[in-house]
Amino acid sequence: MATPAGLILNEDSSHFFTSRSAREMTREQLLALVDQYVGTQVTQLFFNPNSQRTSYRSQVWDPIWEHGKQNPPGDDGGKRWCANARRLDEQGLDPYAIWTARAYEKGISPWISMRMNDVHDVGDPTSYIHGSFWAAHPELRRGHKINFNWADIAFDYGQAAVRDYHMKLIREYFDRYDFDGLELDWMRFGYHFRPGHEAAGNRLLTEFLREVRNLADAHAKRRGHPIKIGVRVPSRPRTAEALGLNPVPWAKAGLIDLVVVTPFWATSEFEMPVEHWKQLLAGTGVTLAAGLEINLRPTPKVWPKYPNNMSNSAETVLGAAAALLDRGADQIYLFNYMDSETTVDDPADYPKILHHAGALDTLAGQVRRHIVTYPDTLPDGDPPGFVLPAETKENQPVRFRIHIGAKPAAGTAQIVLGLGDEGLLDAAALTVKVNDEACAPSAVPAPKPIHPMARQIAVFDIPWGALSGQYNLIEVMGGREQPHQIVWVEIRIVPRHSGE
What we know:
Number of strands: 17
CATH topology of the largest domain: TIM Barrel
Largest sheet: 9 strands, antiparallel
């Protein structure tokens, strides 16, 4: 089965139920969810039926609406999720059976995506979202002797009971649904083994994957078509290996067909080393997808002063996609890019993304922004991987590298800098170069959005001849004794079509 080009879109386990009213819990509305992606670049829809509970009546895990000893939901979204999932069940409507069948009808490849270790709301151990198995077995958590943060409270896959518990749901998915592939989402929430036990954990997961592969092959014979296996893992090979999530040996052993490299949640990561992944996976035949998150932050230092989320726009998504596809990604994977609520802020941006972000030829003429961000998932003990905020010093430049993908044949480009309030806000004192050529202050307005931690925005024109395809070196130097605090750096490109 050939790998389709284009976009993969993940529909999570709560979005449909929280974003629709009770009267919209109908077969027609279930079909409409799929139908909206017909004619776009979405070639695969990944339907996620579970967090710690399932959004259908599972026989092996707790359904979201049966609370048992847990507290019922207190927020409106949680109430809608539970009530609407129950309403569909009472009508005999299984959304995942309906969605996968409809996707097949419409020529979109349906997958099931399973969250392997979801720990939403673990700050409240009585929350309705937690499964009874997790609540009853604190000894099965990876940091049950520590409990400093959410990662400590996740399941420990080093324990056989945890692996067996999750394998039950995998078996149910294969038995219950017909789909082209099963994704094991190891990035919800990314930490699966006791600290220091990750290498042994990877060996355990290899055997776990072998069992999943055997199940897929057996059910492929029953279904009459191949069934692929995918994994969602950290953005960087070293991080994935250090967390026990190294997909390279899985690919070489023929256990998987798709690798999605991605950040966790805090920000989209524009600088994922896709070409390195391609080298490691060469010869395996595995598809490599680059995952984009909905959030956009330049640095983890935004907290606690600026806690609010900032979402990507069409221009920032198209910038990330253009660079990642140019670096060798086979597909772009959209996570938290659903049709409402958890999505881009401007509704007009959604169709632009769905129709342009999946292929280099449709990206070529689009305005795009390339932002300096950071990897939000690192192994415990690793040094932080962010370059912002940065501080200018008199006659000593700070430097940034930005990959823009292929350079358009013609157009204009700007450097956009954001200055933080812990330094000078007078941009007139700055000297900016790109690839060792001076950039003059620009009359072009600053693009939106820019993170609110940038208190002053400065835009500089890049001489078109100075701009390079792939990497560009930006140098920023302050001319005053007092420093500037740089908190935002981007290259914005506006292609010019022939004849303009």
